[in-house]
Amino acid sequence: MEFIKVNKAYVKHIALIQLNRPKELNALNLQLMGEIRDNLKELDQDDEVRVIIITGDERAFAAGADIKQMAGKSTIDMWKVDQFSTWDQINKTRKPIIAAVSGFALGGGCELAMTCDMIVASETAQFGQPEIKIGVMPGAGGTQRLTKALGKAKAMELVLTGKFISAEEAYDYGLVNKVVPTEVYLKETVALASEIAAMSPIAVQMAKEAVKRSFEVPLEEGLHFERKNFYMLFSSEDQKEGMNAFVEKRKPDFKGR
Ligand code: CAA
């Protein structure tokens, strides 16, 4: 791997993917996104991994898709490469993914963070969709996910002016889960990941699936989907362990079965 670093066991049950193009502010070129896709696929299959963290570095989570790589491309070049198809794997990943964001999360970087399930932001984080300033528009979900998170008026402002919002503002809008001092943003993300990793991984993945479904389908269908997942969990050993542990007044030990 040239553009990311992966640690499958950063902490017990937690894998870390770190974008590693610091000089280019972690601009997301095709190869980097391919590396993310391939590694997410692998980590999703690895029973030891329960939660995945994606991070950049202090200065930048990612400053967007690689403008230099795209600058000379034609429509047909873009269509052939279909760069956003590599992003589908992020959305398909069953395990929870948390973005640990410091510095710039712009364009594709903001979209990458929003495609994750949760965002922990350092107080220096800045979010934005500045594509309009380079004559295009968001292409990896920005117009949809930002609008769902911020509402129409604010999303429209960001997408049409390219201006950034601070971590605090992003928190106020519900885009990020929490804002923490820069020195501890990764540590705080690991703490959140560890809380989730202590739960039944099957229940976590089915719950994640149901929450995500609420964005796709009408309420009735979402409720039906939720109920099916809820009932399905009663065939897991973890459900017996979780409920027995409660009755026996002890901590559950979930095995992911
Ligand atoms: N693509 C390619 N290279 C990038 C980049 C990007 N998105 N963002 C930054 N870089 C490179 C710069 O070209 C520069 O490289 P050189 O040293 O070789 O010149 C290096 O990273 C450092 O950047 P700056 O010198 O510009 O740093 P700065 O602190 O002055 O500014 C910034 C930081 C405001 C983030 C500025 O770099 C910037 O505006 N970057 C582009 C942001 C952007 O427009 N993102 C959207 C991209 S399109 C997209 O993402 C489409 C989509 O929907 C997927």
TrEMBL record:
InterPro entries: ClpP/crotonase-like_dom_sf (IPR029045), Enoyl-CoA_hyd/isom_CS (IPR018376), Enoyl-CoA_hydra/iso (IPR001753), Enoyl-CoA_hydra_C (IPR014748)
EC class name: lyase
Key words, A-Z: Fatty acid metabolism, Lipid metabolism, Lyase
Known role: Could possibly oxidize fatty acids using specific components.
PANTHER family, per the entry: ENOYL-COA HYDRATASE, MITOCHONDRIAL, ENOYL-COA HYDRATASE-RELATED
Similarity comment: family membership: Belongs to the enoyl-CoA hydratase/isomerase family.
Protein name: enoyl-CoA hydratase
Source organism of the structure: Roseivirga echinicomitans
